[in-house]
Design the sequence.
């Protein structure tokens, strides 16, 4: 479904008209292409406690940023990165204003704001309150930014610039891979997160399986995992086999006809893995369906089928894998949730139940996966993404839904896929039991 | 020279469609290419140089002289994969597998794809023989006058195209009419034929329902299951159909209906074969091995009405195959007898059970005996799936190999009859 409005307002005439009558002006987002520079311009690094730690400077340089400090007199920034890990009191928060005021406007199109903070830990009330304040600041900056720029918050456990997963997180959030992730906090915990041998192919040597991969978001996920070096098994219903074969042949993967909701799905999956692989490193629970109806009119099978495909299948397959020899150590599982699971949606009680359920699932299963050789399980909650699923919506609803985010446009399947691929990478081992929204800071819900 | 057994690693086919149905605008090359690509996707063979691809079609356009190679070039296999066409009527699909299996056995190749395809919708239409001769003469003529002279021989009736018919060139009779005579000679009842047909539909439907075809079939042009399949088929419903073959026969001797005969069908199938070593290197499980095969032919033109029935050749091939492998007919766990017509299967079984026939025509001391019918065509066969001539062998081969593998071992027999009074039989073992 092409976004004609986005094309129009980015044409010379369209943009003049849109600005005169005050229509939304969505930007063409910077998306990752192999070989692109990390950022569209230099990165300004600051700290709320004097100078940023040398480790952080070195790390930013090593991931390819052109790092400048607050003395630099430039006025075009590719990124503004602030170390706010030492914030302890409400008055320390003024450091945010000092750093960002005047400079937000100097951010280039599709520029990045990244704040490094710490998660509240219950040790001191004033400190926790001040740390939590960062969340509100970053979400609000994200809403203030224009021209495809985004703001996100990294919550670290170690001093900024050290600790696991920071490098892979910086690579994701500064690059075009995070184009549609906006206003989101991510906690980088202490799980095992080895650096890959080759950052261009972080999944080399890994075996991945994506359910519901014949089209849409699943096909895009399979493509990005393959680009990053994984051997990919694409799974979908037997009826979807024609498209599935094309996806597999495009990316050099193999097909598996599997109805994830069938009673013997876990058993068949394990048998396939045992016969054809050395074990699974990455599992993406992407298969999902909608059967929208007001609850007042909902039929039992509309309710049951959505629960079975979107939630029960994931629970059963995870259980089977954890109890088998087919899941390798440092495995990564990513479950597709939805912003509907966070905010609810009229006519989607069944769907919202499953998408909220998935969030409960990953939070609760995180410990079990951590003790399976430092594996992780996380959810990605897409907002409005242009696929065949959303193409079924009425035109007006779709047009409005597309604009209802800070980035004023729908995301693309590849945006979800990039987030999934990051969470599937070895370097993201510090992220576990979390939900990452890929929604362009959707205005519906939190 | 030492030989080794060729392994069957799996297969892929498209659902079979009824003639002039969903595949009416698909050519043989379209179907074969899609089927190879589905195999490539299932086994991760993108860019792989397979030892050899052998396939064929029974009804073939002259432009498709290199059908298999062209399909390979259009597929995701390496363009460095050699290919050739084979044609042995309905035996084509099995014969291609035997040919490449023999090469694997001899160590000449390590991997191969065998297959077959047929369309009765996009069938070649030849120009009328008279018109063809005139046109060739026009082409040969050197002067304008000569050309006009040749053209002046054109007659209106020559414009009528000659559409290929499913009939034997030497007798002018269709396969169904031939089989109607054989059916009568062997005294096969209508009820037995209808029972076999109903079982075929029920078995095929059950196999689909339990997901048996999930890794054997890839949908094509929106069709996800064999179009001819009637899961609710019963003997009672089949009993209501009028006979379509042998209607000239006296009394109630005409027993062959559209329900117990295969319909014209479009489709394609492929099978992946390899050495055990190649399979292990590619981490692909071996389903079964193609152990041995035999072909035979009967003199249906001049021979005995009963013993030399057009589709009776497998009856002759089997004892030779059994003797060479020191096996009896009862030494098999599964039997796949191609259901060209329900009565073909029943005549074949009747012949093997007939001591006098076995002595006189097969040179045996006694009857080969009967088989346990619960082991016959357990996942349905051509009556339910349909029969795109050259594609049937690949369908049977991959399904039988998979079923043997699921059973955890055993031996299976395949028997396929073919036009021209020919037959192909083969043994699979896990
Ligand atoms: N498109 C969006 O805006 C959006 C937003 C939030 C969440 N999501 C989620 O992302 C995932 C993918 O969505 P999409 O838009 O690509 O949907 P889609 O309908 O385009 O694709 C879903 C795929 O899943 C397959 N599938 C359905 N039931 C299955 C089963 N039982 N077993 C195996 N495969 C099955 C389908 O055949 C299809 O290929 C879903 O979980 C969806 O809920 C999508």
Sequence:
């Amino acid at each position: 479904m092409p976004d004609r409005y986005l094309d129009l307002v980015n044409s010379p005439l369209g943009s003049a008209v849109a600005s005169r009558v005050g229509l939304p002006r969505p930007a063409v987002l910077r998306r990752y292409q192999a070989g692109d520079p990390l950022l569209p311009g230099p990165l300004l690094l600051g700290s709320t406690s004097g100078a940023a730690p040398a480790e952080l400077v070195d790390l930013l340089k090593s991931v390819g940023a052109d790092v400048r400090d607050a003395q630099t007199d430039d006025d075009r920034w590719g990124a503004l990165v602030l170390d706010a890990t030492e914030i302890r009191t409400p008055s320390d928060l003024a450091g945010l204003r000092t750093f960002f005021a005047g400079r937000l406007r100097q951010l280039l199109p599709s520029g990045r704001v990244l704040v490094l903070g710490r998660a509240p830990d219950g040790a001191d009330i004033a400190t926790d309150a001040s740390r939590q304040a960062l969340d509100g600041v970053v979400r609000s900056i994200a809403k203030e930014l224009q021209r495809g720029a985004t703001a996100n918050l990294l919550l670290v456990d170690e001093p900024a610039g050290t600790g696991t997963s920071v490098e892979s997180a910086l690579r994701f959030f500064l690059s075009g891979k995070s184009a549609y992730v906006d206003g989101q906090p991510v906690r980088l915990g202490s799980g095992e997160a080895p650096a890959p041998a080759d950052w261009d192919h972080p999944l080399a040597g890994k075996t991945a399986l994506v359910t519901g991969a014949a089209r849409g978001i699943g096909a895009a996920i399979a493509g990005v995992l393959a680009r990053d070096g994984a051997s990919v098994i694409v799974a979908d219903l037997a009826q979807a086999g024609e498209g599935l074969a094309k996806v597999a042949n495009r990316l050099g993967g193999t097909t598996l006809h599997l109805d994830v909701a069938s009673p013997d799905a876990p058993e068949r999956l394990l048998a396939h893995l045992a016969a054809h692989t050395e074990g699974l490193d990455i599992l993406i629970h992407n298969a999902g369906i909608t059967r929208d109806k007001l609850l007042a009119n909902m039929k039992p099978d509309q309710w049951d089928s959505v629960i079975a495909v979107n939630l029960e299948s994931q629970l059963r397959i995870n259980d089977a894998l954890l109890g088998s020899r087919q899941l390798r150590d440092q495995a990564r599982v990513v479950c597709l949730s939805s912003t509907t699971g966070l905010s609810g949606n009229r006519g989607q009680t069944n769907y919202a139940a499953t998408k909220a359920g998935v969030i409960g699932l990953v939070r609760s299963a995180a410990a079990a996966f951590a003790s399976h050789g430092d594996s992780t399980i996380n959810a990605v909650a897409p907002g409005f993404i242009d696929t065949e699923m959303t193409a079924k919506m009425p035109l007006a609803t779709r047009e409005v839904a597309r604009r209802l985010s800070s980035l004023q446009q729908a995301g693309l399947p590849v945006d979800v896929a990039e987030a999934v691929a990051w969470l599937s990478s070895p370097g993201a081992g510090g992220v576990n039991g979390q939900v990452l929204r890929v929604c362009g800071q959707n205005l519906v819900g939190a | 020279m030492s030989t080794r057994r060729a392994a069957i690693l799996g297969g892929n086919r498209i659902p079979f469609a009824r003639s002039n149905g969903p595949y009416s605008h698909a050519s043989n090359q379209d179907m074969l290419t899609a089927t190879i690509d589905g195999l490539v996707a299932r086994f991760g063979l993108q860019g792989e140089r397979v030892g050899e691809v052998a396939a064929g079609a029974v009804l073939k356009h002259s432009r498709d002289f290199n059908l298999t190679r062209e399909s390979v070039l259009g597929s995701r296999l390496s363009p460095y994969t050699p290919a050739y066409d084979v044609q042995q009527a309905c035996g084509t699909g099995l014969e291609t597998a035997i040919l490449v299996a023999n090469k694997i056995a001899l160590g000449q190749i390590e991997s191969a794809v065998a297959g077959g395809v047929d369309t009765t919708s996009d069938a070649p239409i030849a120009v009328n023989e008279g018109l063809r001769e005139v046109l060739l003469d026009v082409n040969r003529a050197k002067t304008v006058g000569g050309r006009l002279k040749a053209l002046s021989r054109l007659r209106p009736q020559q414009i009528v195209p000659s559409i290929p018919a499913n009939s034997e060139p030497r007798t002018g009779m269709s396969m169904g009419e031939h089989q109607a005579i054989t059916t009568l000679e062997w005294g096969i009842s209508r009820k037995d034929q209808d029972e076999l047909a109903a079982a075929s539909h029920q078995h095929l439907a059950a196999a689909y329902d339990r997901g048996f075809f999930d890794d054997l079939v890839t949908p094509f042009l929106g069709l996800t299951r064999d179009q001819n399949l009637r899961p609710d088929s019963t003997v009672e419903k089949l009993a209501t159909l009028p006979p379509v073959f042998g209607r000239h026969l006296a009394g109630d001797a005409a027993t062959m209906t559209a329900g117990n005969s295969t319909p014209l069908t479009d489709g394609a199938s492929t099978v992946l074969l390899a050495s055990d070593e190649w399979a292990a290197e590619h981490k692909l499980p071996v389903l079964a091995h193609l152990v041995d095969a035999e072909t035979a032919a009967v003199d249906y033109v001049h021979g005995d009405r009963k013993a030399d029935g057009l589709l009776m050749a497998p009856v002759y091939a089997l004892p030779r195959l059994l003797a060479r492998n020191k096996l009896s007919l009862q030494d098999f766990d599964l039997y796949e007898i191609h259901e060209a017509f329900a009565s073909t299967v029943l005549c074949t079984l009747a012949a093997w059970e007939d001591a006098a026939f076995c002595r006189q025509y097969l040179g045996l001391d006694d009857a080969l005996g009967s088989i346990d019918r619960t082991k016959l065509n357990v996942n349905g066969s051509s009556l339910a799936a349909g029969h795109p001539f050259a594609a049937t062998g690949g369908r049977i081969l991959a399904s039988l190999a998979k079923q043997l593998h699921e059973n955890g071992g055993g031996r299976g027999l395949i028997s396929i009859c073919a036009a021209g009074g020919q037959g192909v039989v083969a043994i699979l073992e896990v």
Q: What stands out?
A: Chain B touches chain A through 25 residues (CB under 8 Å). Residues 200 and 372 of chain B are 16 Å apart (CA to CA). Residues A 211-212, 214-218, 236-237, 240, 259-261, 286-289, 309, 336, 338, 382, 384-385, 387-390 surround nicotinamide-adenine-dinucleotide (CB under 6 Å).
